[in-house]
């Protein structure tokens, strides 16, 4: 589905569900260079549970128009407008973000409190530093940046396989998603992660779930746990042996954690 | 342009993937080998989880027609070896071909296919699918221009085999995929004769790859199976040609596969519709047997290729042989292309023409002892067939020639035996041909 935001067409899916002004709302925000499709299973689950689901492609990613937004706060502001358009009644939204999307969720929760009821941060770190090696490769649109992002996002088990999703080669799914992003998108996103600064933000008071992968090399579990410690109301779910690509490596456990947090 | 050099992290190599992809020691029993999950169905932890599995919210297994843990290891391993986002294993190679076609095409649609393909695939495209309203135009596999000229507004698929049958034409996958993509069409390639060890078509531009796993993938000739691999490269929503993927599907509560599943749209629809409804699934025991063969794929293929080259060169120098059609030897029209897309070798299935016509071909076959006379390829043992006296015995010579089969054409699948023994066996057969030629003089 598509809506126009300031002349830019934004694509989103609903998990095959239907929007209903009376129902709870969930907004899913993807990570750097990715798109809405990483959320397919949680989207379909919460849609079946009767929630209004929006798995969005940020501008310039997936099937959304426009250049990629250059900072996490600009992405958050864009999604605040997105929420307002799709939810004119002003009902508050649960925001779930993975990796860069977790920073967007954080920024939305801190800076647009009136629109957000709670946030779930998956594979997060605040700040979220990105190595020069990766940034330089992404700036040059070199495929090595896709390989670094993708391979480092998987645990050692995740790289060799045994997908919970029958027949899926998760490592290649991640690669194809990153390859689909246009030139400059991954660099823009990684730079936005690298430059995200929580220092000037209002204090986060919302209920928060932090899901960490204990084998995550991109955003180590210790970083996610630190984020949770600095929040007023946060719970942590740790996935043993899981890498940064937790949505594909452990889809059922991620869904269990989200279900407990969002539906209860 | 920056002149900085960037290095990708290392990834598991081909042989490591052939042994490990998709499987780790069983967490419950510690079994190192892939267990055979000989179970028709799988218990649901609770009702909500069951609904989640049916609604594609949860990962797991429901019923072995749809997926099975043993099959899933083979699927994931083949996807890894072929550089795809996912795979589905099927009851046979024919079932894999049918699954690919039926996932994309409907009545009124059209395929452009190489005319140099496996006879079973030819039957499916030429006769059976036409009954269901899907038509195919067959073209010269060496002419990308011929493929392009045959495209119609209702064309939905371009198809060919990496190495053609029986002429061993090599498909120019990079050029053909570029042309297909220019027309908004996907390229499906049958890579049965080469396996992912000799050629990875997705890396060359193909979008979908299929195999008969009965052949070199398993290598032992004791099992039937097929595989379809989705490269995850094709944008099914870029035009309106693929409504099965880009429009709501009433058979799954109006799910739009391309919208929700991104690069996994094709393989998800193939599982949620094609395997579900047509049901041509693989037995878990078959998946286990194919996995045993797959573990040694590269070792076997190297030997197949080196033996094939020795045999082809021997035949090429023999006075009773009219011609040899093996892209691995100089003089074959696709020798240079084979070097480019099949750098490790042009496989081990090829044909040659004995002098003396149909009777000479028959006499040759009947003298062979080490080569087994049967209708299969890709076994560890060497195999042979003479189409004019077997599969095409009812076809007159004019019609045979039109389909690229000479009366003295013999197809070999060169196995893993000692090459000297293979040459000795062929020598005996060719002596019979020589005697027949001498008698005619």
Got a strand count of chain A? 8
Order of helices and strands of chain A: EEEHEHEHEHHHHHEHEHH
Number of helices of chain B: 18
How many separate domains of chain A? 1
Quote the average pLDDT of chain B. 95
Largest sheet of chain B: 7 strands, mixed
The CATH topology name of the largest domain in chain B reads Aspartate Aminotransferase, domain 2
Order of helices and strands of chain B: HHHEHEHEHEHEHHEEHHHHHEHEHEEHEH
Oligomer: heterodimer
Characterize the overall form of chain A. globular
Task: Set down the secondary structure blueprint.
The complex is a heterodimer of chains A (264) and B (441).
Chain A: E1 2-5, E2 8-13, E3 25-29, H1 40-48, E4 52-56, H2 72-86, E5 93-98, H3 100-111, E6 116-122, H4 132-139, H5 143-152, H6 156-160, H7 170-180, H8 185-195, E7 207-213, H9 221-229, E8 233-239, H10 246-249, H11 251-263
Parallel strand pairs in A: 3-4, 3-5, 5-6, 6-7, 7-8
Antiparallel strand pairs in A: 1-2, 2-4
Chain B: H1 14-20, H2 47-54, H3 69-82, E1 86-90, H4 93-104, E2 110-114, H5 119-131, E3 135-139, H6 144-150, E4 155-161, H7 173-182, E5 187-190, H8 195-198, H9 201-204, E6 208-212, E7 226-230, H10 243-246, H11 257-261, H12 265-278, H13 284-294, H14 297-316, E8 321-325, H15 335-341, E9 349-354, H16 357-367, E10 372-373, E11 383-385, H17 397-402, E12 409-413, H18 419-440
What features would you describe in this structure?
Helices cover 41% and strands 18% of the residues of chain A. Chain A is of the alpha/beta class and 264 residues long. In chain A, strands 1-2-4-3-5-6-7-8 form an 8-stranded mixed sheet, sandwiched between helices. In chain A, strand 1 and strand 2 form a beta hairpin. Chain A is globular, with a radius of gyration of 17 Å. Chain A starts with a strand and ends with a helix. Chain B has 2 domains: 40-294, Type I PLP-dependent aspartate aminotransferase-like (Major domain) (Aspartate Aminotransferase, domain 2, 3-Layer(aba) Sandwich); 297-440, Aspartate Aminotransferase, domain 1, CATH 3.90.1150. Chain B has 18 helices and 12 strands.
């Amino acid at each position: 589905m598509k809506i126009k935001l300031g002349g830019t067409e934004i694509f989103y899916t609903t998990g095959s569900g239907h929007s209903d002004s009376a129902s709870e709302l969930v907004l899913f925000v993807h990570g750097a260079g990715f798109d809405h499709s990483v959320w397919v299973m949680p989207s379909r689950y919460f849609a079946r549970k009767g929630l209004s689901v929006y798995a969005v492609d940020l501008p310039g990613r997936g099937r959304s128009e426009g250049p990629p937004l250059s900072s996490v706060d600009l992405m958050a502001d864009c999604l605040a407008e997105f929420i307002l358009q799709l939810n004119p009644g002003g009902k508050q939204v649960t925001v779930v973000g993975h990796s860069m999307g977790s920073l967007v969720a954080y920024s939305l929760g801190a800076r647009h409190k009136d629109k957000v009821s709670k946030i779930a941060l998956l594979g997060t770190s605040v700040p979220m530093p990105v190595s020069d090696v990766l940034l330089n490769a992404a700036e040059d649109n070199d495929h090595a940046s896709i390989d670094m992002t993708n391979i480092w996002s998987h645990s050692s088990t995740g790289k060799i396989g045994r997908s919970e999703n029958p027949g899926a080669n998760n490592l290649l799914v991640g690669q194809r998603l990153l390859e689909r992003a246009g030139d400059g998108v991954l660099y823009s996103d990684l730079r936005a992660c690298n430059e995200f600064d929580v220092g000037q933000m209002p204090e986060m008071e919302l209920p928060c779930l932090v899901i960490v992968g204990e084998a995550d090399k991109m955003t180590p579990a210790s970083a996610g746990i630190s984020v949770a410690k600095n929040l007023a109301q946060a719970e942590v779910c740790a996935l043993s042996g899981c890498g940064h690509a937790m949505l594909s490596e452990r889809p059922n456990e991620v869904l269990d954690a989200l279900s407990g947090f969002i539906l209860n | 342009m920056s002149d900085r050099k960037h290095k990708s992290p290392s990834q598991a190599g081909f042989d490591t993937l052939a042994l490990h992809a998709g499987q780790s020691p069983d967490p419950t029993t510690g079994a190192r080998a892939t267990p055979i999950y000989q179970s028709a169905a799988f218990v649901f932890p609770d009702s909500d989880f069951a609904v989640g599995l049916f609604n594609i919210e949860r990962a797991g297994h429901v019923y072995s027609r749809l997926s099975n843990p043993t099959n899933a290891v083979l699927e994931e391993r083949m996807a890894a070896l072929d550089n795809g986002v996912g795979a589905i294993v099927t009851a046979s190679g024919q079932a894999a071909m049918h699954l690919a076609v039926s996932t994309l095409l409907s009545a009124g649609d059209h395929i452009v296919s190489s005319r140099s393909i496996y006879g079973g695939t030819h039957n499916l495209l030429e006769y059976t699918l036409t009954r269901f309203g899907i038509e195919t135009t067959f073209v010269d596999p060496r002419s990308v221009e011929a493929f392009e000229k045959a495209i119609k507004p209702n064309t939905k698929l371009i198809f060919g085999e990496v190495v053609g049958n029986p002429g061993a034409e090599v498909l120019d996958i990079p050029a053909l995929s570029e042309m297909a993509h220019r027309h908004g069409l996907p390229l499906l390639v049958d890579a049965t004769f080469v396996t992912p060890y000799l050629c990875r078509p997705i890396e060359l531009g193909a979008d979908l790859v299929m195999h008969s796993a009965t052949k070199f993938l398993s290598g032992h000739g004791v099992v039937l199976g097929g595989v379809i691999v989705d490269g995850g490269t094709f944008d099914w929503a870029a035009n309106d040609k693929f409504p099965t993927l880009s429009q709501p599907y009433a058979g799954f509560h109006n799910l739009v596969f391309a919208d929700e599943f991104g690069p996994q749209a094709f393989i998800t629809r193939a599982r949620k519709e094609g395997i579900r409804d047509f049901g041509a699934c693989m037995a878990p025991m078959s998946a286990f047997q194919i996995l045993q063969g797959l573990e040694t794929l590269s070792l076997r293929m190297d030997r197949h290729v080196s033996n094939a080259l020795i045999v082809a060169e021997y035949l090429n120098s023999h006075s009773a042989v009219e011609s040899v059609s093996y892209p691995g030897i100089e003089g074959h029209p696709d020798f240079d292309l084979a070097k480019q897309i099949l750098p490790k070798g042009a496989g081990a299935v090829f044909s040659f023409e004995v002098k003396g016509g149909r009777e000479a071909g028959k006499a040759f076959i009947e003298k062979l002892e080490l080569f087994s006379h049967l209708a299969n390829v890709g076994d560890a043992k060497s195999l042979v067939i003479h189409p004019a006296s077997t599969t095409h015995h009812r076809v007159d010579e004019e019609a045979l020639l039109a389909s690229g089969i000479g009366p003295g054409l013999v197809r070999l699948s060169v196995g893993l035996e000692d090459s000297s023994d293979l040459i000795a066996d062929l020598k005996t057969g060719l002596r019979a041909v020589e005697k027949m030629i001498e008698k005619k003089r």
